[in-house]
Amino acid sequence: MSSIDPPEGWPARAAALRPTLDGFVDGESYASGDRARFACINPATGAAFAELAAGTETDADHAVAAARRAFADGRWRDLPPAARRQILLRWADRIIVAGAELALLDTLCMGKPIAQARFDVELAAAAIRFAAETIDKLNDDVLPTGAGSLALNLREPVGVVAAITPWNFPLAIAAMKCAAALAAGNSVVLKPSEISPLSALMLARHAAEAGLPAGTFNVLPGLGSTIGAALARHRDVDMISFTGSTETGKAILRSVGATHMKKLSLECGGKSPCIVLADCTDLDAVADDVAMQICWNAGQVCSISTRLIVEAPIAAALAERVATRMALAVPGDPLDPASVMGPLASRAQYEKVLRYLQQGIASGARALCGGAEADPSAAGFFVRPTLFDGVDPASPIAQDEIFGPVLALLTVADADEACRVANGTVYGLAGRIWTDDLRKGYGLARQLAAGSVVVSAKRPTDPGPGFAAGMEAAKQSGFGIEGGMAGIRAFTHLKAITINL
Length: 501
Ligand code: NAD
Description:
The chain is α/β, with parallel strands linked by helices. The protein has 2 domains: 10-268 and 480-498, Aldehyde Dehydrogenase, Chain A, domain 1, CATH 3.40.605.10; 272-468, Aldehyde Dehydrogenase, Chain A, domain 2, CATH 3.40.309. The chain is 39% helix and 21% strand. It has 16 helices and 22 strands. It has helices spanning 10-16, 57-72, 81-97, 99-110, 114-134, 170-183, 198-209, 224-233, 246-258, 283-295, 312-328, 347-362, 396-399, 415-422, 438-447, 484-489; strands spanning 23-25, 28-30, 37-42, 47-53, 141-143, 149-157, 160-164, 187-191, 217-219, 239-243, 263-267, 272-276, 305-311, 366-369, 386-389, 406-412, 427-428, 430-434, 452-456, 474-475, 478-479, 492-500. Strands 14-15-16-13-12-18-19 form a 7-stranded mixed β-sheet, with helices on both faces. The protein has a 6-stranded mixed β-sheet with strand order 9-8-7-10-11-21, with helices on both faces. Strand 5 (141-143) and strand 6 form a beta hairpin. It is globular, with a radius of gyration of 23 Å. The chain starts with 9 loop residues before the first helix and ends with a strand. 52% of the residues are buried. The mean pLDDT is 96. The structure holds nicotinamide-adenine-dinucleotide (NAD).
């Protein structure tokens, strides 16, 4: 038994779990009247274990109206900053206390290994704490004027924020987004992914128990085509903060353009590069990091490196090291704390990844580990991690976001070619650079079209800036700042007030 195991064991705890399936609106449980349902499928078994309402426009109207009332009467935004800070800190504490259940809900819905789901609970609580601590530090500006006037630049909350989130970090992304929006003084309506809605339903309940006023944080489970689309076109929503695929991001853009010009932040897909230069001496450290990233959450992470761009002299040596490590990441039962990889999150995702694996083989790429065969003995959506060599940089496996444990090795002649290849997709989310020459690494980092870049010369030992780092994606990975103080300010609008004395 691992130290994170509940005493009765994860499978027993999962069997006893009776998850909350209703939304949470205006401080109380909210059951949609919709008879259309959708199922939560455990991707480790392929079996449905919960059914929720698909949701209707009426549900969206109800939640938005509650959020509007809460915003309009100032029950949250007008509280003293220290009081708001305390409430969010209490919320983070409650998330930690409920951590085992929250982790289990994510593991059951989308197959994340339980140890990683436990890590996400820590991440969620840390994100809420970061947001809480910004509340009494978000200063406004007094602007320079002559003696006859006083001019202020004030950051005001936007109003009603609709947060629309994906399934790959169900708890953590919802917590980060909603805590930032709440810290800025807004009211929130959260629409979690239909694949993994259950932890988000608990998130809002814990916030209410921590003292967040009713109506300030509402959650509606439902489909993207019903609740998501209704929020995107809703005329009383002031801002959409979306994380998900580029395709859905574009649909939301169209919808917002066709209705009214609400504020919009889109965090979308990625196909991030990891550039490894030939001067790199610690190839084992590089291989550890590359293999860990592509297997984490079964490769279903927006910002991980899915293209390994390597200078020719070290390509073979690095490929061998990475393939050996990836082959060790055998997918297993996500409820086993020893599992490093679980299944893919859904049948659709599984079929998509298998299609790309077959396409990769058909295009002439060579699988150094893994390959296109699914495990026919498994009922769930398991695939082995695959490293492709001999990949054409223009081919779909090098260009498209696959969102699975599939890594494309691209061999290049020098750093200039590495940079050209790295920037040669429609995405611009993140990047990694390995070189012993940090001056060169910094130069490359400046040239990458990416929201965030990590440059390393050796095995990372420092956790880095964490939530203090703000970033904005480039190209079709979206726009709008997330993270850091800038990410809190992104949920405000800037007002200038001039008083003629
Ligand atoms: P998705 O776009 O299918 O769904 C995301 C959310 O949008 C879900 O809640 C869904 O119900 C909702 N939705 C779907 N159609 C909608 C519509 N027409 N209007 C409004 N909402 C709608 O994405 P996904 O499959 O859940 O998540 C995987 C994607 O998310 C990947 O592309 C990944 O890169 C991206 N992602 C990006 C980041 C980032 O920080 N950039 C982080 C995590 C995931």
